Structure formats: structure tokens, C-alpha cells
Amino acid sequence: MPFPKIDACLICDIAREEGNGKMSLLGFVGITPGVDLFVPTFEFPIGITFVLVGGMSTGNNSASFKVTDEKTKRIIFETPPMPTKVDESKARSVFAIQTAAKYPQPGKYRLEVIVNRDPVFSTTFDLTLKP
After folding, report:
1. Residues 115, 66: Cα–Cα separation, whole Å
2. Smallest Cα–Cα separation from 17: which of 109, 90, 104, 119?
3. Model pTM?
4. How far apart are CA 11 and CA 50, in angstroms?
5. Is residue 36 predicted with pLDDT exceeding 90?
6. d(Cα 73, Cα 124) in Å, to the nearest integer?
7. Distance between CA atoms of 15 and 85, rounded to whole angstroms?
8. Which of 14, 71, 101, 119 could form a disulfide with 77 if both were Cys (CB 3.0 to 4.6 A apart)?
9. pLDDT tens-digit map of 42-74
10. Distance (Å, rounded) from C-alpha 108 to C-alpha 36?
11. 6-129 belongs to which CATH class?
12. Distance (Å, rounded) from C-alpha 95 to C-alpha 55?
């Protein structure tokens, strides 16, 4: 089986692996695409953690993650390809990507997951200036 099909993307402040297949999420915001993060300012980097939940898989892959501004198509955040090893004994796969990036303005942004140079998942989220 290739890289697992991603079923959901959760957004939170911090995700921490706890063992026994559990993960603690701090500052849970929601499940994309219906997520609107309210931020106090766009002057500083904004920390966002993406938790990707998928099905069973096997083998090793190379994955990278990219966030782009939907309006301008400008890349906000991008990782180099990273090796991923899926635990074949588990029925689900969970990947957490913790980011800190400077977003230019309120608006819609797109997260893409690229595996072995092929896009495998895409979703959007919104950033809104906190009133």
C-alpha cells in the first residue's frame, strides 16, 4: 500500500504524541475546510499545527508540506521532502506538522501534502483578524 489516504485535517495550536496511539491536542480549532482562525495581528509569525488523519498504509515515502495564499498563490510555508515511515501494525495513520510562518493578510490559505513528488491531499483554512 502507498502513503495512506488522508481522511481529515485537524487544526490546533500544539499536538503532542502521548504513546499507546494517543495524541493530545492543545488549542483545537476545527477540522478543515471549515476552519477560521482568529489572529490578533499579522505582524508576527503565526503558529499552526496540522494533524492529518488517514487510513492504513505500509512502507516508506518522502513527504513535503506546503501552505499557499489562495489569492496570490504565494508560498507561505514549505518543508523539504522528509522521509515518512508508516507503522504497519496500526489501522490508522496520524501525522502532525507544526508550523510557524508569517502570513501577509487575512484570507484563505491552502495546505498541500506532496508525497514522492505527487500531490495527495489539499485543503483550505481561513485566517481572520480578531476584532
Report:
1. 11
2. 90
3. 0.90
4. 5
5. yes
6. 13
7. 19
8. 101
9. 999 999 999 999 887 666 788 899 999 999 999
10. 9
11. mainly beta
12. 11
